[in-house]
């Protein structure tokens, strides 16, 4: 029986992928084999010795200590693209909100008083304060052309916008999915200088934290609309408020409320609802649950952010041994020697590395003795060993 600890509200459609005769699933489990979570922060969580996998029912993994998990040989899975449409739709809504001053106009309309005629008179007298702009011919700058950025870029092209994008590590898949005519920028600065609206779709990392700061805002076009549905830490809120107050920026629409932004007329800060649709929550939960289940049951790895992708159909007549280790010479030799010294035959094996980590799946004709497994566990460089019967 595998034990899966849930943090946050994980869609039941996802949890249903874990058959209860083989998986105990609860938010109360003490010694979990795996966790499933959304935005819960794991950085201060005391990682139990039993933990074998982390499944993020979403895209961003900045709430998870990925490096510390790697050091323990624990793969972290996420759900790439599963909530991209939900975020794209909210980003488009944000762009329309900003272009047409919908929030301040609506707030003004709430203050109208008197009978219908009086309200109408005030509305007509004041509506010029809310004159907006149309999107065709305007330039959208997209920083980060992954699952969400590509969707947003393509939708903006369909709305008649010019689109300029920056992503130094764009994948072949994203490049194929991008509409023709999206102009390639070579830096964030180039995007800032060219765009009327800039939207951010990068993960929060050491490289992207504080990416949009005072000097980048100073170099932006006059009247910039900035959209941030990526992560709070990517934008310096105080710099945004200063640029808005100086009249250099038109508005900031984001998914991350903060004390600095609260109450500002030109800011709309939503409560991190980019992925909050039933569809996205189901897609993410299903994907993360399937990945965690597959790993626990077979050792196969799909969509991990720290481990190599490795899928080996089951072969042989005995145990499956999986080993996560430091990516250094002679680890594979030591694994196969341990199996050979136990007098067992390897039916099939697959080894892949990613950065400092390597992962092997070894199908064996027979049952691995406990002392062999223990010896492998103690081998220098070995991070995690499992035997799947
Ligand atoms: N508001 C919300 O509820 C949600 C927020 N997000 C956030 O959006 C981020 C992006 O999500 P996806 O598009 O699904 O991820 P993704 O992994 O498909 O795309 C991220 C892209 O950013 C690029 N990138 C990384 N560093 C960069 C840099 N310094 N400059 C330019 N590009 C850079 C990568 O090459 C990649 O193509 C997530 O990491 C997460 O933080 C994601 C989903 C929901
Ligand atoms: O689960 C959520 O609502 C957060 C989604 C998110 O931020 C992500 O997928 O990176």
Structural summary, described in words:
The protein is of the alpha/beta class and 389 residues long. The longest helix has 21 residues, at 278-298. Strand 7, helix 7 and strand 8 (183-184) form a beta-alpha-beta unit. The protein folds into three domains: 1-82 and 277-307, 3-Layer(aba) Sandwich (Rossmann fold); 84-98 and 132-269, Rossmann fold; 310-389, ACT domain (Alpha-Beta Plaits, 2-Layer Sandwich). Helix 12 (331-341) runs antiparallel to helix 13. It is built from 13 helices and 16 strands. It is elongated. Bound molecules: 1,4-dihydronicotinamide adenine dinucleotide (NAI) and 2-oxoglutaric acid (AKG). 2-oxoglutaric acid (AKG) is lined by residues 38-39, 58-60, 83, 275-276. The site of 2-oxoglutaric acid (AKG) has 8 residues, from loops.
Give the helix/strand layout.
Layout: E1 2-6, H1 12-15, E2 23-26, E3 34-37, E4 53-56, H2 66-71, E5 76-77, H3 84-99, H4 102-110, H5 116-126, E6 139-143, H6 147-158, E7 162-166, H7 172-177, E8 183-184, H8 188-194, E9 197-200, H9 214-218, E10 224-228, H10 237-245, E11 249-254, E12 267-269, H11 278-298, E13 320-326, H12 331-341, E14 345-354, E15 357-365, H13 370-378, E16 382-388
Parallel strand pairs: 1-2, 1-3, 3-4, 4-5, 6-7, 6-9, 7-8, 9-10, 10-11, 11-12
Antiparallel strand pairs: 13-15, 13-16, 14-15
Keywords: NAD, Oxidoreductase
Enzyme class: oxidoreductase
Organism: Spiribacter pallidus
Mean pLDDT: 97
Q: What is the annotated CATH architecture of the largest domain? A: 3-Layer(aba) Sandwich
Bound molecules: 1,4-dihydronicotinamide adenine dinucleotide, 2-oxoglutaric acid
What is the domain total for the residues? 3
Poorly predicted runs are: none
Number of alpha- plus pi-helical segments: 13
Radius of gyration: 25 Å
- Outline the biggest β-sheet: 7 strands, parallel
Shape: elongated
Give the SSE string: EHEEEHEHHHEHEHEHEHEHEEHEHEEHE
CATH topology name of the largest domain, in short, is: Rossmann fold
What is the β-strand count? Answer: 16
